[in-house]
Each structure stands twice: as C-alpha cells, then as structure tokens.
Known about the structure:
Aspartate Aminotransferase, domain 2, globular, 2 domains, alpha/beta, seven-stranded mixed beta sheet, three-stranded antiparallel beta sheet, Aspartate Aminotransferase, domain 1, 10 helices
Amino acid sequence: MTEIPEITIPSSLLPADGRFGSGPGRVQTTFVDDLAATGTSYMGTSHRRPAVRDVVAEIQSGLVEMYDLPDGYEIVLGVGGATAFWDAATFGLIARRSAHFVCGEFSRKFADAAAKTPHLDDPIVVAAEYGGAPEPEEVPGVDTASFIHNETSTGVLAPFARLGSALVAIDGTSAAGAIAYDVEAADAYYFSPQKALGSEGGLWIVMLSPLAVDRIESIAASDRWIPPSLSLKTALDNARLHQTYNTPALTTLYLLARQIRFVNTMGGIEWADGTTRRSSAHLYRWAESSTFAQPFVVNAALRSPTVATIDFVSGTPADRVSSVLRSNGIVDTEPYRKLGRNQLRIATFPNIDLEDVEALTASIDYVVQRL
C-alpha cells in the first residue's frame, strides 16, 4: 500500500463541509435533526398509515410541482434502487425489444439486464466510448428506447430524444432534483434519491407519462409472469394510495420529502440547475487552467453539471491526492472504481455550495504543490 503523505491543509483553505461524494451524496444535517425531532410520531410507525403516507404524498406532489408535470403523469415509488427498477422494467415496461444508448457503467447495466431476460428479444445497444455519448437515432423494431440523463460513472451529460413510437425510459439518478429537462420527451424518468436529491438509498422513483401507464397496465393484463415485488402495476396501484408495496425505509422517505420541499422553496428545478452549473463550471475552469489537471470529458457540451470527472497528468497520482484530502476531512473524491483512470470525481449537487467547491480546488492545489 502506498504510504499517505502527512500533509495538513490549513483550516483557512478547507471547505465548510468536506463531503463531495457522487452517491450517497451530501445530506443536509438540519433535515437529520428535524427527523430526530419527530420522536415517536414517525419513525417506527406503519407505512400504510397517515404519518408515512402523507410523506409519500408530499414527495409525489412536490415532484409534480418541481417539474411542472402535465396532467396524467403519475409518480410511483418502489423499494430498491435503480437496479431494482431495471429488473422491474424488463418485466413490466419493455413489451418485446428495447434499444439502449450506452455511455458508461450504469447505462450498460440496464442493457445487460434486458439481454439476460428470457421473455425479451435481444436488445439493440448503441454505445459510445466512455467520456462521450451516443447521438439519439431511431432504431427500427424496438418498443422502448433507454437513455441515461447523466452518467454518474463518467461525468457525461447525455442527450436523449423521442424516436418514432418507442416509449422513452430515462435514468435520471444523478440528475433528478438538479438538472432541468423537457419532461414531455420522457415516458418513464426514474431515479434513486441518494444523489442530487440528498436522501438515502433503497428506493426507486419513476415519473410516468400516460403512455407509460398504459404500457404497464397492458403488460400486466397479458399472460406474462411477473414477480409481485417487481410488478410495476402493483407499484402503480400502491402509489395511487400514497404507499409502496414493500415496507420502505422511512428515513429515506423523510429526507427525500424535505429535500424536494427545500428545492421548491428555493426556486424549483431552475434554481437547482443553476446552482449545479455554477459549481461545476468553476471545477472545469480550474481544471482547464491547471498544469496538472484537465476535464475527462473533452466535449464541453457533454460535461455533467452534477458529477465532474477531472483527469490528472501521469506525474500527479490522483489516488494520493484523494487520500490526503480524506485525511483532512475532504471525502469521496475518488473516481468510479471500474473506470480505472488517474482522476478525481467530484459531485456538485445542489446541497454543495459553490464556496465549498472553490475551497476544494484550493485544497487540491495546496496538496499537489507538496506531493
């Protein structure tokens, strides 16, 4: 193991909050305090009773407000993260064959799930090199087109579009609550809340268009066998009662509701989008002007506003930099483990202040000068 240099960053340079993880992301500690203050009225109560169902209803109405969803769109929640939703989608959203636009580890995982599902035809995969993104193009013979809004593994903001009559499913896990988009361009926009939405994991949420609702109900009425825990129709029926089919983590629900309320109070998705873009723009400018760093994503139009991937030159070991940062209380700047690059990956979610991002780059400069 490489020895970590003993470098102490001056307190005047350190961020007020040293959490820069891309998931789980920074949780507002005041919300945790508020959760503790609920005492016996919320935690440890039934998820089918008003104390919890009211929180689910607040999440649903808050997302409708945040994205100004058209009439007929529905918010559905289920236990498990986006990984569980991929499995559910292979049973209840893809009718026969899907196309997957891949630009990183997470967008590929949904394609892999569809490829291994015996009742589906082999999916069509349109892939780009990591650091890039495929251009949306119509793929004949598919009923579902899958995109990712923001690829967390590579820091790519990927394009998506409607393609013929295919239902459009978009993974918004590190974009939801932070990046604005044309909601009518998506039929199933799904995400987990442990990233930009400042909550915990263990939950998936999907915003469904009427077309997606019809697809789910049509498949459920067919002779396809669907495990109850992966049934989108069951999840939809429960969501209309402001609950989940399985028992959810109440902490996750509470923190999610509070974060949505906070974003809407601050100005909604437009405010969140502007906040993340200012913070990420600072990171990219800093990297471009640095002698040892550069943005991994070459095309500036594809650079993520919420997850910045910064490559280091070969003479500057990013793993040693991140280790020194961690020893000084600045945590979770390491790259995605499977990417295998000499880089840092830094989240700029709405809960991360620009001042903290500025302090982070000053701290990195201080460390590199002393390595």
